[in-house]
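## retry 2 of 3
previous attempt timed out at serialization; input unchanged, resubmitting
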Amino acid sequence: MDPVTHTLSGVIIYQLGFNRKAALFVLLFSAVAPDLDYVTRLWGTDIFLRYHRGITHGILALGLFPLLTAFIFRNKGGFLYYYCLSFLAYTSHLLLDLSNQYGTRILSPLDWTPYSLDLTFIIDLYITIGLLLGVVLCIKNKKRAAVIAICTILLLVGYIGGRAYLQGQVKQFLKTKVDANIYKLYPLPNGFLRWWFVTKTENEAQTGMADLFMQKVFLYEKYNLVNNDPAVAEARKNRIIQNFLCFARQPYVEVNRRQNITIVTWKELSYSFLPGDKFTAKVVMDRNGKIIESRLGF
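## retry succeeded, writing output
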């Protein structure tokens, strides 16, 4: 999720009745603190793509950050009080991120595998607007702010739960239309009944859109997953490609040769509905197989 949504979630938690000194600051800072790993952008977009939602989004950080925060603010109202506040806000960030398809290394550093529920898009305006309305209503009606905050949280949980139900329904529908071994469904921006899918057989992947309302499946592309071209192995030595593949969950590679150059392109199929070269990585080689250019589409 975006920083605005995480900030609003911290404000909503504050409206539950946590009014001691520094409570609002602790909640807001803890709600956005996991995204301090944005600093990795200073070392390149590919570094950010690899390490964002890594150690700061894992169980170790969840255990240590609230302890540090509580220690700093212990004289403002009690160690345990601020530990609980920080833990709640930090947890809200991890859970919101876990709901979308970007991938969160929630078990790091024990397990660096990115996990995702694939229920919401990276930016979900329905969640952001819902939290914003909840905050506004709390400010307008301070006597019932706690009740409004609880209702807002329950509606948020219900919204994500509803999307989980719809995802399950779409997957069952897709299985009646497409024969495959693996079915992966990903949310489309502002979509409820339409979902992007990636299906796989042993050597082939297929992408498309499943529409539960129209009861139709729209097939887009088929991809051969077996590629033994030596240029692929050479391209894998490139740092940008290595970092991209650490991020990608549904990667596909293709090789194109044009006169004196070879272009090796990796695509992340779970985002292939986006226009342009979003979530792609390319390597350009000369006739001798030497890499002369590499770039990331993000």
